[in-house]
């Protein structure tokens, strides 16, 4: 083994002192101070209009047009979130990421970066509701990047944790879905309720599928990549939401997720892709230079005007129930025939359904829905057998039946029925005597 050369003037005592100082410097680097903070959810609410008509308290952590805040839509149930927009534009401020989704905190909750590098949201009594689990991993600080990514970084500027790895219902420009987590977006339950909703968008090996959850024993697809639009065959294992110039003079921009989604005629860097409360996939673009109405909805997946698929294909287009034609809800089916549609239109109540109670059905001719579009159904199956199977399932609202093909789809959710020219495609709606 080679012995390191030590100059004659460099005594062994000096060498020991040098090694000691080097060890001390290494310890100091590893133990570099963390830029800690603690903010308490207290005080007056902000004066500006925000999405979901939320009340909010801003925190001094920001990178325009993004800023941290506590917000609530119901009393004493707060989310720690990132909002997007500027007060100068007098436009609505939108919420694009939440730390504690589905687990709201109360008044006087604290948001802290601890000396050990862990980022923590806790109730006033100290109970931890959410954290980044980054204790003792070299974190020295937090910052919000210009693209809205919230990062914890180490002494060398490397990201130890980033919010882009934990999307909620939204992808910001530059944010990705991967074949392994994060691989999905989940809608918000309602404007008032910020917990997880029933719609999800999932990125898998073949592409993107959209699901309705919790209404049947397994998720129901209301869109899948089989039509080729949002199919994926690589390269790589991720898809990224990007907005970039389409022309050299930046006159037009393109926002993409696998395919082109929107083409704003201005800088679209400040855009986001969201799985909305109603299950539609939309792009919202913020144009910072204007002082009024800075937001524009530049894309909606289920939209004849701004999207790729017929607007009537969205299961929630007509709310709980209805017949849709040319993107308009034109009728409310009933046992007395087709009535005028309103937001109160609904399938008959099946609360009294039980074994031994034989239901009845009324027909709606010339309609389809998402089930017959994105699942195979069963068949050939006689009408009476299809009806029998729905009879014994109290969660079955009815069924779709293609008379010419003898094909049956049991429907735990009927939703929006899309009008078609083929009158042999029929929906049977269950009701109790």
From TrEMBL:
Keywords: Signal. Gene3D superfamilies: Bulb-type lectin domain. The keyword Phosphoprotein does not apply. Residues 46-165 form the Bulb-type lectin domain. Residues 353-432 form the Apple domain. It comes from the Eukaryota. CDD domains: B_lectin. It holds the Pfam family B_lectin. This is Bulb-type lectin domain-containing protein. GO terms for biological process: response to other organism. Residues 1-31 form the signal peptide.
């Amino acid at each position: 083994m080679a012995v390191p050369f030590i100059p004659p003037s460099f005594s062994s005592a000096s060498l020991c002192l040098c090694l000691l100082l080097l060890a001390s410097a290494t310890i100091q680097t590893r133990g570099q101070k963390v830029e800690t903070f603690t903010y308490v959810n207290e005080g007056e609410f902000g004066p500006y209009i925000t999405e979901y008509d939320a009340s909010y308290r801003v925190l001094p952590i920001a990178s325009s047009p993004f800023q941290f805040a506590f917000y609530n839509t119901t009393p004493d149930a707060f989310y720690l979130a990132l909002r997007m927009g500027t007060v100068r534009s007098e436009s609505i401020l939108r919420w694009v990421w939440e730390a504690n989704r589905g687990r709201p905190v109360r008044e006087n909750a604290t948001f802290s970066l601890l000396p050990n590098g862990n980022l923590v949201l806790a109730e006033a009594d100290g109970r931890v509701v959410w954290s980044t689990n980054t204790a003792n991993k070299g974190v020295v600080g937090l910052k919000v990047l210009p693209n809205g990514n919230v990062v914890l970084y180490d002494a060398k500027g490397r990201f130890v944790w980033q919010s882009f790895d934990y999307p909620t219902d939204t992808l910001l420009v530059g944010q990705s879905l991967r074949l392994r987590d994060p691989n999905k977006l989940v809608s918000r339950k309602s404007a008032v309720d910020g917990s997880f909703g029933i719609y999800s968008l999932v990125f898998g090996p073949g592409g993107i599928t959209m699901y309705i959850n919790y209404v049947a024993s397994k998720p129901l697809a209301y869109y899948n990549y089989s039509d080729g639009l949002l199919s994926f065959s690589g390269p790589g294992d991720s898809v990224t939401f990007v907005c970039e110039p389409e022309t050299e003079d930046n006159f037009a921009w393109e926002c993409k997720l696998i395919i082109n989604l929107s083409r704003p005629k201005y800088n679209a860097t400040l855009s986001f892709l969201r799985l909305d409360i109603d299950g539609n996939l939309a792009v919202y673009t913020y144009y910072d230079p204007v002082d009024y109405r800075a937001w524009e909805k530049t894309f909606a997946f289920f939209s004849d005007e701004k999207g790729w698929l017929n607007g009537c294909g969205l299961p929630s287009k007509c709310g709980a129930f209805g017949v849709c034609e040319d993107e308009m809800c034109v009728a409310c089916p009933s046992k007395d025939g087709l009535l005028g549609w309103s937001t109160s239109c609904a399938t008959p109540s099946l609360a009294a359904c039980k074994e031994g109670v034989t239901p009845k059905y009324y027909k709606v001719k010339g309609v389809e829905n998402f089930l017959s579009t994105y699942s195979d159904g069963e068949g050939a199956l006689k009408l009476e057998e299809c009806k029998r199977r729905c009879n014994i399932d109290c969660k079955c609202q009815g069924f779709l039946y293609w008379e010419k093909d003898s094909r049956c789809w049991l429907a735990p959710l009927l939703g929006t029925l899309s009008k078609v020219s083929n009158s042999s495609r029929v929906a049977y709606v269950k009701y109790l005597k």
